């Protein structure tokens, strides 16, 4: 920071890092703003030895890399025009004008190198009171960028206390349909952050009350299933929470597959949702060690662990030590590997082709019935005995 302030003495810390510093939370990224135009800022930073990457010049943003750590530096801006998704900006040297572009008062504060807080809209008081409030008129801020509807719920979940801001909720109700014009990828990113965050049930209930949830996740299941999952103390993983909102319908999991496609999730995420929908091997606290090895062979360990929470929520809906013990065993039992290969069968006289495939399948079935314990030699002996039962 000393080197950045040497190059840009007018620069201030801005946004989330200031908010989290003030409320004692961990700060992972330090973002700055400066009245210096981006080209001049790049020149000054390079003079003090920073490597500068022009990450978003059209928006006035460059990234200074110092000791392998990135710092985003953005020139103060004002909006020339907005269309609900994108803004055309111009540079300014007016800090308050730049702060007016921020979404919420708690995100509109800045901190200079002397430790002086600059708070134009009462963000510190709102932070202390647990109030998430738009800068200026809520409706106008949402009209500038409809994604701010979702960001309101995400920040309310993390920083809000008491009743949500009434003006914000009324504006969201009136403008919620504008979110349908947003890119699905942006919506999905915010939704997954909400699903992995705190106060989830309360937040989704508020989204339901404002009609937001119906716009973004139509035909979702009642929130009672999610309430049962959260009561179990599940890990804050968004995909299995999303799965509870779209349980398999008619046994085929179509709803879950649809939501993955609707949100344009990654192939990996869609595969995980599909695995939840298919369910896979049965999970129960009564599984013995042989059963544990069998289910580990049949389905990925990470899927099994998340599925265990879904089953616990469905069967109990509350914390339970037996399910915790099952998860411990799922985590610690060694992953079984079927030890027989085609070359082993060739050595026993089995011809390559369909016949080999049948023998591999039959041997694997026997191996599973034995709790995945037989090694390659035992599997060969079993096949040899089946080939020559006399």
Question: Gist?
Answer:
The protein is of the alpha+beta class and 390 residues long.
Which characteristics define this entry?
390 residues, alpha+beta, Beta Polymerase, domain 2, cca-adding enzyme, domain 2, 4 domains, two-stranded antiparallel ribbon, 21 helices, 9 strands, 11% strand, NT_sf, transferase, metal-binding, nucleotidyltransferase, tRNA processing
Notes on the structure:
The chain is an alpha+beta fold and 390 residues long. It folds into 4 domains: 1-129, Beta Polymerase, domain 2 (2-Layer Sandwich); 130-216, cca-adding enzyme, domain 2 (Orthogonal Bundle), CATH 1.10.3090; 219-336, no CATH class; 342-387, no CATH class. Helices cover 51% and strands 11% of the residues. The chain contains 21 helices and 9 strands. The protein has helices at residues 2-7, 16-22, 38-47, 95-99, 123-129, 138-144, 148-159, 166-175, 184-195, 200-209, 212-216, 224-231, 238-245, 254-262, 267-278, 289-298, 301-315, 321-332, 342-347, 354-369, 376-387; strands spanning 12-14, 31-34, 51-56, 61-66, 69-75, 77-82, 87-91, 110-111, 117-118. The strands form 2 sheets. It has a 7-stranded mixed sheet with strand order 3-4-5-2-1-8-9. It has a two-stranded antiparallel sheet with strand order 6-7. A hairpin with a 4-residue loop joins strand 6 (77-82) and strand 7. The radius of gyration is 28 Å and the shape is elongated. The relative contact order is 0.06.
Trace the largest sheet across and list its strands.
3-4-5-2-1-8-9
**Largest β-sheet summary:** 7 strands, mixed
The H/E string reads: HEHEHEEEEEHEEHHHHHHHHHHHHHHHHH
Number of helices: 21
Q: What do we call the CATH topology of the largest domain?
A: Beta Polymerase, domain 2
Shape: elongated
Give the overall pLDDT as a whole number: 93
| Total beta strand runs | 9
Q: Which homologous superfamily in CATH is the superfamily of the largest domain?
A: Beta Polymerase, domain 2
Strand composition percent: 5-15%
Task: Show unreliable segments.
Answer: none
What structural category characterises the helix and strand content?
alpha+beta
- How far from one another are the termini? 82 Å
């Amino acid at each position: 920071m000393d080197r950045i302030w040497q190059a840009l003495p007018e620069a201030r810390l801005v946004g989330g890092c200031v908010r989290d510093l003030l409320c004692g939370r961990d700060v992972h990224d330090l973002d700055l703003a400066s009245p210096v135009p981006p080209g001049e800022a790049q020149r000054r930073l390079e003079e003090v030895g920073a490597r500068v990457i022009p990450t978003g010049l059209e928006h006035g943003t460059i990234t200074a890399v110092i000791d392998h750590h990135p710092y985003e530096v953005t020139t103060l801006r004002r909006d020339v025009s907005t269309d609900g998704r994108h803004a055309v900006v111009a540079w300014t040297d007016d800090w308050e004008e730049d702060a007016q572009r921020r979404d919420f008062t708690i995100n509109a504060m800045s901190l200079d190198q002397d430790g002086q807080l600059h708070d134009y809209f009462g963000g510190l008081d709102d932070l202390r009171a647990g109030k998430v409030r738009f800068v200026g008129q809520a409706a106008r801020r949402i009209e500038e960028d409809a994604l701010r509807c979702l960001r309101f719920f995400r920040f309310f979940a993390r920083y809000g206390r008491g009743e949500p801001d009434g003006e914000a909720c009324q504006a969201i109700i009136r403008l919620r349909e504008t979110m349908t014009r947003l890119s699905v990828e942006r919506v999905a990113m915010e939704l997954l952050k909400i699903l992995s965050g705190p106060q989830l049930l309360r937040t989704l209930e508020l989204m339901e009350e404002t009609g937001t949830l119906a716009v973004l996740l139509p035909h979702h299941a009642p929130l009672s299933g999610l309430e049962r999952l959260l009561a179990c103390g599940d890990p804050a993983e968004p995909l299995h929470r999303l799965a509870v909102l779209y349980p398999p319908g008619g046994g085929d999991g179509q709803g879950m597959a649809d939501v993955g496609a609707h949100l344009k999730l990654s192939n990996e995420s869609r595969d995980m949702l599909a695995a939840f929908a298919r369910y896979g091997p049965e999970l129960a606290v009564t599984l013995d060690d042989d059963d544990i090895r069998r289910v580990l062979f049949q389905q990925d360990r990470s899927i099994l662990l998340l599925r265990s929470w879904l089953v616990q929520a469905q069967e109990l809906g509350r914390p339970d030590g037996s399910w915790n013990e099952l998860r411990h065993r799922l985590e610690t039992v060694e992953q079984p590997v079927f030890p027989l290969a085609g070359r082993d069968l060739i050595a026993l006289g089995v011809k390559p082709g369909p016949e080999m495939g049948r023998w591999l399948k039959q041997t694997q079935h026997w191996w599973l019935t034995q709790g995945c314990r037989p090694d390659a030699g035992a599997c060969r002996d079993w096949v040899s005995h089946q080939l020559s039962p006399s």
